[in-house]
Amino acid sequence: MDKQAIRERVWDALEAEGIARFPFPPHGRIPNVASADGAAERLAETAVWTDAETVKANPDAPQLPVRRRALRAGKTVYMAVPRLREEDCFYELDPARLDDIERAPTVSNVADHARQVGPEAVGTVDLVVSGSVAVTEAGARIGKGEGFSDLEFAVLRELGLVTDETAVATTVHERQIAGGPSGAVESASVPVDDHDVPMDWVVTPGRTVETETPYRRPSGIDWGALPPERIDEIPVLAAHAPDR
């Protein structure tokens, strides 16, 4: 199955089985799912979570419990500006500066609470949390298909703010684990492209998988794979592109 076929299979299952949660429909997005709070709680039991002082997290609904838990634990959280549309492309949420930890990490309120910064101001990231449509126990991840999560990682990697040692995790429902015992997709054969960021940890409400992934994470931005118009429409890429 190609990536889009896997996405459709997972989205359909989450909707048909009543696992999907608002916003609806789950299709075309990182789907919100039942027990997302439980997956966040289990992630918080890992050593990589305990050791992390800074967390870069996706802005999607199923990872909102992760972002809130991080702030309550005193961790600084970074979220990307939607579609990286500004050169200062990250929102910085410092719990010491927040009056409302519940509202601050929501996608509709983050701009009112966060400090907007460029990637150079982010500093070292200890833990990256990614949303997934599907993922395997070997760490192969499928997002919603726009590529921004991988691109955000590549920008940070290009600047040395994440490394091969930076932990990368995703929180999902069991039905999202392709090839898993309860996965909506039986096969664990998921296409992996050079720009895809593999997951070190896959966490559900019921279990934690340390993937020992065989896949290599990208070493930075693959400038040759980006058409000029893509670079021009994303300010942070235009600012750092070679020969400009």
Describe the structure in your own words.
This protein is an alpha/beta fold. The protein contains eight helices and eleven strands. The strands form two sheets. Strands 4-3-2-1-5-8-10-11 form an eight-stranded mixed sheet. A hairpin with a 4-residue loop joins β10 (201-203) and β11 (208-210). It is globular and about 45 Å long. The N and C termini lie far apart (40 Å).
Q: Short summary of the structure?
A:
The protein is α/β, with parallel strands linked by helices. The chain has helices at residues 3-16, 36-43, 47-51, 64-72, 110-113, 148-158, 228-233, 235-240; strands spanning 54-57, 76-80, 90-93, 115-117, 127-130, 134-136, 141-142, 167-171, 177-178, 201-203, 208-210.
Set out the fold topology.
Layout lengths: L2 H14 L19 H8 L3 H5 L2 E4 L6 H9 L3 E5 L9 E4 L16 H4 L1 E3 L9 E4 L3 E3 L4 E2 L5 H11 L8 E5 L5 E2 L22 E3 L4 E3 L17 H6 L1 H6 L4
Parallel strand pairs: 1-2, 1-5, 5-8, 6-9, 8-10
Antiparallel strand pairs: 2-3, 3-4, 6-7, 10-11
Let me know the number of strands.
11
Q: Ranges with pLDDT <50 over ≥5 residues?
A: none
Largest sheet: 8 strands, mixed
The spatial strand order of the largest sheet comes to 4-3-2-1-5-8-10-11
What Rg, in angstroms, do the CA atoms define?
17 Å
Q: Roughly what percent helix? A: 25-40%
